[in-house]
Amino acid sequence: MARQRSVRFIALAALAGAVAAASVLAVAELVALVVARGAGPLEAVGAFVIDIVPQPVKEFAIATFGEYDKIVLLASVALGAVVAAAAAGILQLWRAPAGVVVLAVGAAAGTAAALTRAGSTPLWALPSVLGGIAGCVLLALLIRRLRLWRDAARGRTPPAGPDEASEPPQAAPSRRAFLTMTLVSAAAAVVVGAGSRALSAVTNSIDAIREALRIPAPRSRVQIPADAEFDVPGLSPLITPNEDFYRVDTALTVPSIDPATWRLTIDGMVDQPVDIGFDQLMEMGLDEYAITLTCVSNEVGGGLVGNAVWTGVPVRDLLKLAVPSADADMVLSRSVDGYTASTPLDALVDPERDAILAVTMNGEPLPLEHGFPVRMVVPGLYGYVSATKWLTQLTVTRFDRDEAYWTPRGYSARAPIKMSSRLDTPRAGTPVDAGEVMLAGVAWAQTVGIERVEVSIDNGPWEAAELSAPINDDTWVQWRMPWQAESGTHYIGVRAVDRDGDLQIEERAPIAPDGSSGWQRVLLTVR
Predict the structure, then answer these.
(1) SS3 335
(2) What SS3 string covers 29-83?
(3) Cα distance between residue 450 and residue 474, in whole Å
(4) Which of 255, 276, 316, 436 is the most exposed place for a label (fewest CB within 10 A)?
(5) pLDDT in tens, 440-491
(6) Neighbouring-strand partners of residue 521
(7) HSE-up of 364 (CA within 13 Å, CB side)?
(8) How does pLDDT run across 104-123, given as a tens digit for each residue?
(9) β-strand partners of 479
(10) By the 8 A CB rule, do 148 and 170 touch?
(11) What's the predicted TM-score (pTM) here?
(12) DSSP classification of residue 117
């Protein structure tokens, strides 16, 4: 019976630790709402983890969880915090003030993580500091009452008989005090934390601002050929809907930027630094561009690629205002959340390449998660060196002087997109009936264009597929080929040739350091 009672008090101490940790987060959320949104310990620590995570872990997370990787990360950080808080409660019961010290260390970690974020100020320390103080005080009080209850229960002489498990009268007040404070504190943490989140959502009017924003009509529009899209079930659409467009970035929470306050600075190795607002950018004139984006994390045959129609301003027009130095060869673009990308300067000033600052995506202002209000889009370069979202700064510099976010993490500073082709339908693992089966997919070779796509059945001869009419050389094309399928299992191979006559790379290469390569081969089952 004494052992059962000991286990019960340990469990209650763990509960007290979890409630104290919840109070840390609740108070921190409330303070962050007032002084520095985004500086809460959960987001700050999560963002810090994203920054330090090894490249193989990052690839695993993207491949396994896709666009839900950040939700999984937040859940993992929260779970780790709960486990650590439970341990702190037990330590406080066994050897005070060890538990309070553990909780204080956790709050200090949140403070340090917040202060290391891009754009942070000393005020960013307040959420974790004040939340940590509240949590430490609450943990000390809860465990003090729990200890009184435990000591009172241990101090009696247990009577014989069936009433042996009952507690002495003097334990009842301590028990009530502990349970009452625990329940009230837990309820208060939930109300304050949830209320702060809800209030933040209500007062954050960026969604409403985006919906009310009126973007000037473009001076020119993308002309899509009538035969640019095949009607094949399961084939990726020519234009990827915004809600289906892949998202890969380092932002744990989507930045909220009011176009009225947005500024872009162009500095570094320039003769004339530039500072421009959203309205000034609009006044430069907008044009439409159809451009396919590809993530360096896209595996052979993967889905981290999408095609959209963007409206924007050529980056070269903005750089012309700044007059870059002749010695410069790189532009370091910076997001409002501190992310940076290294883009070759010649790719941004090339009059034959439509590198743009985009403000709309498929006919509407950029979705928040895709960079609202302004992002970069550069054909022919993987997103991690070109497609900076929530853009706020362009620094003209050199590759031998500066490096971007992913360069020290094992990726190349320059990353031209590798030509690739993909089978969309039929999908591996989905049996098809014998007879005529339409094989179909997409292929891309940005800035050059696709000349042909070839398909091989069971390692047989390569046969040319039918191509859709391309919008331009910066977008993917669709392909299709009818196949008389016989029962059994069959390997389908796909490869592409660009307009320069170059064949898609056959040899398999991993994602790092500059993108995967290889011909896709899919095993299909025919019934």
Answers:
(1) strand
(2) HHHHHHHCCCCCHHHHHHHHHHHHCCHHHHHHHHHHHHHHHHHHHHHHHHHHHHH
(3) 10
(4) 436
(5) 999 999 999 999 999 999 999 999 999 999 999 999 999 999 999 999 999 9
(6) 493
(7) 11
(8) 998 888 888 888 776 677 88
(9) 441, 467
(10) no
(11) 0.77
(12) S
